[in-house]
């Protein structure tokens, strides 16, 4: 299963992901209609994107009274069916990440759908802070990074033992 | 007909009467001048007498976005500030990155026209159809970063801001208009005009959409242009890796890196202030403006010494040079500190550094007497630069007041105006014309005084090496091409740095698919030429003439003393007449009737 991966340290705060997301979903540009949000801290010029994590235990889907939100076990995405939504906003309350949002008119629920497997945000992220990867690959890559680190530490430890 | 890109509305704010009016964008103007710099210049030309005192109530300030702003077109976060510049007395357009322009469009406006003068300090708040002038008495005197923070506290935590700092309030001729607390529209003293109007800034938060005319074609054009940019050495990697300061070693290595007020053009200690050193010692992370895939911005910190812990945006190449090499300084921490201070006061780093360098030469030659200098103004003293910037920013003591007027007026006061490295009284940027011939012609003919970003011939003369930097032949055409391309580009809302990869045709495609205009490369370049000529007409009416299209005697007569360009001078006359001819102007640099007709520019 592919998931959106965020490397916080790489984000430059350009917000192109927000423009791409809103354009993909609405055909016009409006960051308020973006499913992904880049939080900009001007006081120290740091940038933190937040996005839907497609939770396995999806509170948004659990509280939804009309099953407008449902976890899709095949794609891993929490799907949103606009036609079933009654606008009760319980999903917004339930989401721990603030990733279920209201659109620019403050009326309709909007939520990340991974663009059906080809996320628009990833395509414009030139800093590569956002990537769309197989979750197994991500785990392996992380293990590898940790292992390389441990290997170096191990070498130093070995030196300590031999002396 | 406009089908997208523009929001179609202009906000006119009269500070004298307090009246705020929403007007329609003129479609005919948009087709002829696009938005941003072009449209703003047209307003200035039609509405403002070019002979006025720039700091009088009669001047206007136009804050302009372009049709590509607020989309995912590459590097589309620019905001243009157009006015009559007080440093030069010419038409002025300074622009900055950040997030303000796109936010203004999301609020429904392409441009804001500020006119008149408020009795007490005010700021403008634009939010969901509300436009309101609010008192700013408690903001007056605040530094730029403080103002940004306070404006957001007073309005909306996610508002985007435009502001002036103490330099603008005190009408320093080096004052910037700042955006988001750290991005600078930083040349020609545009901030002083807002200061003269008692106008502290704007906070804006919008919720409207930006449409484009042909969504699918636009998406393709954006994908294509982003792809091109990702493959260029500068825009696709170098800029993100080293920032614009990557140019330090490039320009120094060819001996075109002005040093100690241009007494030389080679700085033996350049490595210490290079982009490479900056990355190693001070870089915290990269920063990019709205929708920018290039990401040249730096967030840096001073990690040791007496300025330890200070943080901020930048410095850029120009700032590292002006506050560094131009003052003979290789102490990078002092350069960073001076750069942060310029941002806080809201002062142009280029002009500020070059003005300090001028003061240093005046001091060392004995023209600026010791009793006027609160501390020794010696080349190479990092502390002297930092202290001089403070004096300048706060306009303390006699020297601070003089420095705040820029190098030309400072040098003139001490009877040696020839020591000001400026054209039309605006300080040089970081390229020595003696070592790069075409850029000298650009400095001399630029419509806003000495400037690199009106026609960046460096791209061809140095970076790509397509043209021999030391030859004079063909430079007139080269300068014209770059000037016209930039004038059109500055009117679209995207950043000049996109031209490292993109040509006029690529940008015309973005523009056409966004707006619905039928603009090819040829038409795009002609729009640029039209804007350039209109700016020239404004300046001619303001009293400028051929005699002002010149460079300081040092550049024309004193050979470079050392380095790879040793012995070179700039023979401007070998290019200037040629340039007028290429432009279709007469020998005095005046556009003839034929040219104006061709460009559909109406003469009075």
Comma- or semicolon-separated keywords:
A: 163 residues, alpha+beta, Alpha-Beta Plaits, two-stranded antiparallel ribbon, B: 604 residues, Aldehyde Ferredoxin Oxidoreductase Protein, subunit A, domain 2, 6-stranded mixed beta sheet
Describe the protein:
The complex is a heterodimer of chains A (163) and B (604). Chain A is an alpha+beta fold. Chain A contains 5 helices and 8 strands; from the N terminus they run βαββαββαββαβα. Helices cover 33% and strands 18% of the residues of chain A. In chain A, the strands form 4 sheets. In chain A, strands 1-8 form a two-stranded antiparallel sheet. The mean pLDDT of chain A is 93. Chain B is of the alpha+beta class and 604 residues long. Among the domains of chain B are: 9-205, Aldehyde Ferredoxin Oxidoreductase,  A, domain 1, CATH 3.60.9.10; 243-426, Aldehyde Ferredoxin Oxidoreductase Protein, subunit A, domain 2 (Orthogonal Bundle), CATH 1.10.569. A 6-stranded mixed beta sheet of chain B has the order 2-1-6-3-4-5, with helices on both faces. A 6-stranded mixed beta sheet of chain B has the order 8-7-12-9-10-11. In chain B, helix 7 packs antiparallel against helix 20 (504-515). The chains are: A alpha+beta (163), B alpha+beta (604). Chains A and B meet through helix 1 of A and helix 4, helix 7, strand 13 and strand 15 of B.
């Amino acid at each position: 299963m592919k998931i959106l991966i965020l490397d916080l340290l790489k984000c430059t705060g350009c917000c192109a992901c927000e423009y791409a997301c809103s354009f993909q979903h609405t055909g016009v540009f409006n960051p308020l209609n973006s499913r992904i949000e880049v939080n900009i801290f001007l006081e120290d010029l740091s940038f933190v994107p937040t996005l839907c994590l497609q939770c396995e235990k999806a509170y948004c889907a659990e509280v939804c009274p009309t099953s407008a939100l449902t976890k899709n076990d095949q794609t891993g995405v929490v799907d949103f069916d606009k036609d079933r939504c009654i606008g009760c906003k319980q999903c917004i309350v339930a989401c721990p990440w603030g990733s279920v949002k209201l659109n620019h008119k403050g009326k309709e629920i909007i939520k990340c759908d991974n663009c059906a497997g080809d996320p628009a945000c990833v395509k414009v992220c030139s800093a590569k802070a956002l990537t769309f990867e197989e979750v197994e690959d991500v785990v392996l890559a992380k293990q590898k990074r940790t292992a390389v680190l441990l290997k170096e530490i191990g070498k130093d430890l070995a030196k300590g033992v031999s002396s | 007909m406009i089908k997208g890109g523009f929001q179609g509305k202009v906000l006119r704010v009269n500070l004298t009467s307090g009246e705020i009016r929403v007007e329609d964008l003129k479609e005919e103007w948009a087709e002829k001048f696009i938005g941003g710099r072009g449209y703003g210049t047209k307003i200035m030309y039609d509405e403002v007498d070019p002979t006025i005192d720039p700091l009088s109530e009669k001047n206007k300030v136009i804050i302009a976005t372009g049709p590509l702003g607020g989309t995912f077109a590459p590097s589309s976060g620019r905001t243009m500030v157009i006015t009559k510049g007080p440093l030069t007395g010419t038409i002025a357009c300074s622009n900055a990155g950040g997030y303000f322009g796109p936010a203004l469009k999301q609020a429904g406006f392409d441009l804001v026209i500020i006119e008149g003068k408020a009795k007490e300090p005010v700021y403008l708040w634009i939010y969901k159809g509300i436009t309101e002038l609010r008192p700013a008495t408690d903001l007056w005197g605040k530094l730029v970063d403080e103002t940004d923070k306070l404006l957001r506290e007073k309005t909306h935590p996610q508002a985007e801001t435009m502001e002036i700092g103490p330099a603008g309030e005190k009408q320093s001729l080096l004052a910037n208009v700042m955006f988001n607390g750290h991005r600078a529209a930083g040349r020609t003293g545009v901030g002083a005009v807002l200061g003269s109007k008692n106008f502290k800034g704007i906070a804006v938060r919008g919720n409207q959409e930006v449409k484009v005319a042909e969504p699918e074609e636009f998406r393709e054009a954006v994908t294509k242009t982003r792809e091109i940019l990702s493959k260029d050495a500068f825009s696709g990697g170098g800029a993100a890796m080293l920032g614009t300061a990557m140019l330090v070693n490039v320009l120094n290595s060819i001996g075109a890196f002005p040093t100690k007020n241009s007494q030389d053009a080679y700085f033996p200690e350049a490595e210490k202030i290079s982009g490479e050193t900056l990355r190693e010692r001070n870089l915290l992370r990269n920063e990019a403006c709205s929708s920018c895939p290039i990401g040249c911005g730096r967030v840096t910190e001073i990690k040791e010494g007496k300025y330890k812990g200070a943080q901020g945006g930048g410095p850029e190449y120009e700032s590292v040079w002006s506050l560094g090499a131009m003052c003979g300084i290789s102490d990078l921490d002092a350069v960073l500190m001076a750069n942060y201070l310029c941002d806080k006061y809201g002062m142009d780093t280029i002009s500020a550094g070059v003005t300090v360098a001028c003061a240093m030469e005046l001091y060392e030659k004995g023209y600026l007497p010791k009793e006027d200098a609160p501390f020794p103004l010696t080349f190479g003293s990092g502390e002297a630069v930092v202290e001089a910037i403070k004096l300048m920013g706060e306009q303390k003591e006699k020297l601070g007041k003089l420095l705040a007027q820029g190098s030309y007026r400072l040098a003139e006061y001490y009877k040696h105006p020839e020591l000001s490295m400026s054209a039309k009284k605006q300080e040089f940027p970081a390229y020595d014309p003696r070592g790069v011939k075409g850029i000298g012609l650009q400095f001399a003919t630029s419509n806003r005084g000495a400037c690199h970003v009106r026609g960046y011939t460096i791209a061809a003369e140095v970076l790509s090496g397509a043209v021999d930097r030391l030859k004079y032949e063909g430079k007139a055409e080269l300068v014209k091409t770059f000037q016209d391309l930039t004038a059109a580009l500055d009117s679209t809302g995207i950043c000049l740095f996109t031209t490292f990869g993109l040509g006029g045709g690529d940008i015309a495609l973005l523009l056409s698919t966004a707006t619905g205009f039928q603009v090819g490369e040829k038409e795009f370049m002609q729009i640029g030429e039209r804007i350039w000529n209109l700016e020239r007409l404004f300046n001619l009416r303001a009293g400028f003439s051929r005699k002002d299209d010149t460079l300081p005697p040092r550049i024309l007569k004193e050979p470079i003393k050392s380095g790879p360009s040793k012995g070179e001078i700039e023979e401007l006359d070998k290019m200037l007449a040629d340039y007028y001819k290429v432009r279709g102007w007469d020998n005095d640099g005046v556009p003839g009737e034929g040219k104006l007709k061709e460009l559909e520019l109406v003469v009075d």
